[in-house]
Design goal:
By secondary structure, this protein is α/β, with parallel strands linked by helices. The protein folds into 2 domains: 215 residues, Aldehyde Dehydrogenase, Chain A, domain 1, CATH 3.40.605.10; 174 residues, Aldehyde Dehydrogenase, Chain A, domain 2 (3-Layer(aba) Sandwich), CATH 3.40.309.10. The chain has 16 helices and 18 strands. The strands form 4 sheets. A 7-stranded mixed beta sheet has the order 2-1-6-5-4-7-8, with helices on both faces. The protein is globular.
């Protein structure tokens, strides 16, 4: 048996679930339709009005991302593509979203953009959800039903890896696979419609870049603000999001004094938020730190608390591969911002930055071009979802274009010639 939220959670057999998905084949809407904007805005209001959302920053961020003004900007950007190209924008069709389990709001971002693109959507959730994710799915399903969109938007759970999954996939025009490399590779072996598009978002790691001179000049308020923003990037989603920094890179002359100052402030931010890691996580971080020291990948360990462990990395490539989460940071220093390219691979996603000019950031972008690193954003914005993700314009992949060639002059002349 399978699970759907329609809007109440209920069990459904394979035949009934497949019938619901099949019925969505031509159920799309006009991209950017105002009723769709209104539905998503209603979800924003419902999230922000619920006391549970105030207990976790990621839900506040999601509600804010779905606010009416932001949705209208997204809609305008989407519609502008049609105006600029002269083609008619159409939904791609039925989109299947396979979100990760470690970032419990990513399915909403992926789904919401596809809704704006006019698609009918199937969101396949894990068979076992946390209480918070159950709350979020139920809230969204209720709003969707209230707006009469429940025949076009399906939140469900079904087993991976069997013949039924193949039958579901074959009904889909677009598949968005969010998760680790193994998940993307395994799911990609299952075919979708012959003219469908399957996009994988595999494992990524991210960095935070800090200018030594800029930090040295920063006053107390600016340093505290940076620590707060670094906290947001690091501790939301328990440091498991693709945009969560795993390595802090200082650009300039190495300074242990400035480094210790930053982590002391970060530690205060962690304490203020009452973050506490489980004992097993704390032990795992220390075990990894000692392994890296023994192997020569790191040459110093700084233990600030169970929630914050920092190791000075000797080999940044290996340091980025060997990460833990739960407040485990590597640290490295380079002389020039362009040196980041030496260890920016396709696995690197987001480069958070503090203390650099626009020209320096452009120089960084040119240095890493074709290597990796798909987002360069201020520290504190590493986890903010955007319509451009991993270097891809999502609206472009979520829609189709119907080209319209106007009548040629010869045809026009024939049309204007009276028939005798």
């Amino acid at each position: 048996m399978n699970t759907i939220w329609a809007p109440e959670k209920q069990m459904i057999d394979d035949a009934a679930l497949l019938a619901r998905v099949s019925a969505m084949t031509y159920a799309g809407r006009e991209p950017g339709a105002q009723p769709l904007v209104g539905m998503l805005a209603a979800i924003s209001r419902a999230i922000l009005a619920d006391p549970r959302a105030r207990l976790a920053s990621q839900y506040i961020a999601l509600g804010y991302w779905l606010r009416p003004s932001a949705l209208q900007q997204l809609r305008d950007d989407l519609v502008k593509q049609t105006n600029d190209s002269g083609a008619l924008l159409a939904p791609r069709g039925v989109a299947l979203h396979l979100p990760p389990t470690n970032v419990d709001t990513i399915f909403v971002y992926s789904w919401a953009l596809s809704v704006l693109a006019g698609n009918a959507n199937v969101v396949r959730l894990a068979e076992k959800l946390t209480a918070d994710t159950e709350w979020l799915v139920s809230l969204i399903a209720c709003v969707v039903a209230e707006h009469g969109e429940d025949e076009r938007q399906l939140f469900c759970s079904y087993p991976y890896g069997d013949a039924f999954e193949q039958r579901i996939s074959r009904q889909c025009d677009l598949r968005m696979i969010w998760g680790g490399d193994a998940k993307v590779e395994t799911v990609s072996r299952t075919a979708i419609r012959p003219d469908g598009l399957s996009i994988g978002f595999p494992d990524r790691k991210s960095l935070s870049l800090i200018g030594v001179d800029s930090y040295a000049r920063a006053d107390e308020k600016a340093r505290d603000e940076l620590a707060t923003q670094l906290y947001n990037d690091t501790y939301w989603f328990d440091q498991m999001g693709c945009g969560s920094p795993r390595l802090v890179v200082w650009i300039g002359e190495k300074s242990d004094t400035l480094s210790d100052d930053l982590y002391a402030r970060l530690g205060k931010a962690v304490a203020a938020k009452k973050i506490a890691v489980e004992t097993g996580v704390a032990i795992g971080k220390m075990a990894l730190a000692n392994d890296l020291l023994a192997e020569g990948v790191a040459d110093r360990l700084r233990f600030f608390s169970n929630e914050l462990v920092v190791v000075d990395i000797v080999d940044p490539v290996v340091g980025l591969e060997r990460t833990h989460g739960g407040g485990f940071l590597g640290e490295y220093t380079v002389a020039d911002i362009a040196d980041i390219a030496n260890f920016t691979t396709r696995k690197v996603q987001t480069l958070g930055h503090f203390g650099f000019s626009s020209e320096e950031l452009k120089r960084l972008a040119r240095a890493i071009s074709g290597r990796g690193g798909y987002r360069i954003v201020p520290i504190g914005q590493a986890l903010q979802f955007d319509v451009t993700w991993d270097g891809m314009e999502l609206f472009v992949h979520m829609t189709r274009r119907i080209t319209i060639w106007e009548t040629s002059w010869k045809q026009a002349a024939l049309l204007q010639t009276p028939v005798s």
